[in-house]
From TrEMBL:
UniProt protein name: Amidase
GO molecular function: catalytic activity
Start and end residues of each Amidase domain: 27-430
SUPFAM superfamilies: Amidase signature (AS) enzymes (SSF75304)
Source domain of life: Bacteria
Length: 441
């Protein structure tokens, strides 16, 4: 397991050390830069490290009184998010020399909170894939086993947190791109409800589905990042006793690798012993919602990349180019129907939580596959890593719901548990997750 200065600690620990003077921002940034340099040949979690910019920010933080919740905290930002004066490539040769003039809104919020942006993290090319191993700067390895996927598309952000290189990182999530790498790397990550965090200055994949999320080692750290980016309020956890938890069942959710099944079942049993009320819940339209996701994402991705595909197709990686070419064949009437279904499903999404506080299911039905694995057995009866990694995530993306992945205790490769909350209930979801973490950890 690759480790850095934040291994075995939490974001709260780092903030406390900075506030007490036990840690100096300048020294901390130097530790981060050294750790990133050492880990880079193994993990490739970063595309660009802004060493001089980070040092400048650290000196300013050292000389100022705390200006916000993340004062002096080193953070990493996914490489599809604009950062003024810092290379932002979208994981593609199309943007190999692209340097934005302005920060994205979320980066401005990070800076106002006192965060120090140390660099940009590896993303699947144009965030168009859940594996994180097909990108212009090379694959991102999993800190638990660098020969395996970190997951995507926010691969580098999850890997950087899991390896202890930074205590907090920003990702994006369209169909699972925060939750999947969080699960595969053994960290916590939230996909907020649709529109909760501004996407201004974030390169789009599918505007109907895109969200911005955050990753940290634990729920409290993730909640701190969410509060800064979403400008949200405090998160206070309810007791687990009496918590009403729905467990999605049916063919769509039953194909699990034996390791995932055993670890997740033990997690659910521990939650039951802690006093949660567990109810099995049918989701008969899960496959339909996934199909809506595929249609909407495909059509909108083609709209984003149409000119690049027509004029410079050879600059795309082979996998993304093939997927975009296939997406051009989605008829407009199917896209229109899918959008209509998406709108109707979101309008009635709250009904799915009648008598429930949250839904709970494995984030991914498999553990991290080997890098570049494609059409092969990856466990649980799955022969496509992409299909397996997306399966438990896309329905909630279509519904626009807040969803969070948290680690499940156990040995070996990480397993994630996904909590899904009602519409607009981001803070409640984080509170519930924090209570569950305390009860099962």
């Amino acid at each position: 397991m690759t480790s850095g200065p934040f291994s075995g600690t939490t974001l709260a620990d780092t903030v406390q050390r900075l506030r007490s003077g036990a840690t100096d921002p300048v020294d901390l940034v130097e530790e981060v830069l050294d750790a990133v340099a050492a880990a880079q040949p193994v993990l490739n979690a970063f595309v660009t490290v802004d060493a001089e910019g980070a040092r400048k920010q650290a000196r300013a933080a050292r000389d100022q009184q705390p200006t916000g919740a993340l004062h002096g905290v080193p953070v990493a930002v996914k490489d599809i998010v604009d950062t003024a004066g810092v290379l932002t490539t979208m994981g593609s040769r199309h943007f190999a020399g692209h340097v934005p003039e302005r920060d994205a809104v979320l980066v401005r919020r990070l800076r106002r909170a006192g965060a120090i942006v140390v660099g940009k993290t590896t993303t699947h090319e144009f965030a168009y894939g859940p594996t994180g191993d097909d990108t212009a700067n090379g694959p991102c390895g999993n800190p638990h086993d660098p020969s395996r996927m970190a997951g995507g598309s926010s691969a580098g952000s999850a890997a950087a947190v899991a390896a202890g290189l930074v205590p907090l990182a920003v990702g994006t999530d369209t169909g699972g791109s925060v939750r999947i790498p969080a699960a595969l790397c053994g960290v916590t990550g939230i996909r907020p409800g649709i529109g909760r965090i501004p996407t201004d200055g974030v390169f789009p994949l599918s505007w109907s589905l895109d969200t911005v999320g955050v990753l940290a080692t634990d729920v409290a750290g993730t909640a701190s990042g969410w509060r800064v980016l979403a400008e949200g309020g405090d998160v206070e956890g309810p007791p687990v006793t009496g918590l009403r938890v729905g467990l999605p069942t049916g063919d769509w959710f039953d194909r699990l690798d034996p390791v995932v099944r055993a670890r997740f079942d033990a997690f659910v049993e521990a939650l039951g012993r802690a006093g949660a009320a567990l109810t099995r819940v049918a989701v008969p339209d899960a496959a339909e919602l996934h199909d809506v996701y595929v249609t909407v994402q495909s059509a909108e991705a083609v709209a984003v990349h149409h000119e690049r595909l027509a004029e410079n197709a050879d600059m795309f990686g082979n996998e993304v180019r093939r997927r975009l070419n296939a997406a051009t064949r989605v008829p407009s009437y199917l896209y229109a129907r899918a959008l209509r279904r998406l709108t109707a499903a979101r309008a009635t999404a709250a009904r799915r939580f009648s008598g429930l506080d949250v839904l709970l299911l494995p984030t991914a039905p498999i553990t991290a596959p080997p890098l570049h694995a494609r059409d092969t057995d990856v466990g649980g009866g799955w022969t496509s890593p992409r299909e397996a990694l997306l399966a438990h995530n896309t329905p909630w993306s279509v519904l626009g719901l807040p969803a969070l992945s948290m680690p499940v205790a156990g040995d070996g490769l990480p397993v994630g548990a996904q909590l899904v909350g009602p519409p607009g209930a981001d803070a409640d979801l984080l509170a519930v997750a924090q209570a569950i973490e305390e009860a099962t950890g």
